[in-house]
Amino acid sequence: MTAATDAALDFIGVLDIFGFEAFARNDLEQLLINFANESLQATFNKAVLVAERDVYAFEGIVVEETVAAPDDTEACVELIAARRPPSVFSILDDASKQSRSDGAFCRDLHEALAGKTCFAAPHKKDVKDTFVVAHYAGAVAYTTGRFVSKNSNKVPEGLGELLEASAAFRGLAAYGRAPDRAGDDSLSRNFATQMRELCGLLDSTTCSFVRCLKPNHKMAVGVFDRACVASQLRAQGIPQTCDV
């Protein structure tokens, strides 16, 4: 390596992200996981699809109208975690701060986000405890029964005093590594901040992507389900990638 290449190549990183999740019951954990995938899909679209189209436009190359545009994953990211309310996370934070019930949280979601892009209406019988997000990989219904309590990042009463009485805690504090007792930031807010920082880092680098596919829904050995694979290819924007 020369000094020039060494200066340009600050690091080589590998990001291994959990896959998109959709179960019979989907909770806050699934929303966070799917939000992460949605954010990274937006990064992929910008780095591969949008950037390539910009190059075509700059060079005067006409792209056929039959070529599909990449899915607008940014709209889903904004629905979940927009910096300016309302968003799913901002409404959830308000519910956590005010110690509101999950039913009230779900009602607030439907009142504030009805008609928004990527926010779909559940069946009428499920509207009291369910909301639906139309992700790039498919619509997912989330059940709000434990969202508010899981989102709270408050330190349990008495735990702070217990930790401060601990010699191990005092030792960590001496090295500036003591846990934060404030607990002001919610789980969703912290996660959204971390994802913005991660995506900002990825946007500042040159990325290569490896897309992983399940050969079948049952995870059976030696079974190739064409419909299963095709739906994943479409969801990940692979046909658009091949077009450009």
Describe this structure in words.
49% of the residues lie in helices and 6% in strands. The chain has 244 residues and is mainly alpha-helical. It has a domain at 14-153 and 186-214: Methane Monooxygenase Hydroxylase, Chain G, domain 1, CATH 1.20.58.530. Strand 2 (130-135) and strand 3 (138-143) form a beta hairpin. The protein is globular, with a radius of gyration of 22 Å. 22% of the residues are buried.
List the helices and strands and how they pair.
Elements: H1 3-8, H2 28-58, H3 73-81, H4 88-97, H5 102-113, E1 119-120, E2 130-135, E3 138-143, H6 147-151, H7 159-164, H8 167-174, H9 187-203, H10 226-235, H11 238-243
Helix pairs in contact: 2-3, 2-9, 4-5
Domain Myosin motor: 1-244
GO molecular function: actin filament binding; ATP binding; microfilament motor activity
Organism: Aureococcus anophagefferens (Harmful bloom alga)
List keywords for this structure.
single chain, microfilament motor activity, P-loop_NTPase, ATP binding, Methane Monooxygenase Hydroxylase, Chain G, domain 1, 3 strands, 244 residues, 11 helices, nucleotide-binding, mainly alpha
Q: What's the end-to-end separation, in Å?
A: 34 Å
Number of strands: 3
Shape label: globular
Highest-level CATH class of one domain:
Mainly Alpha
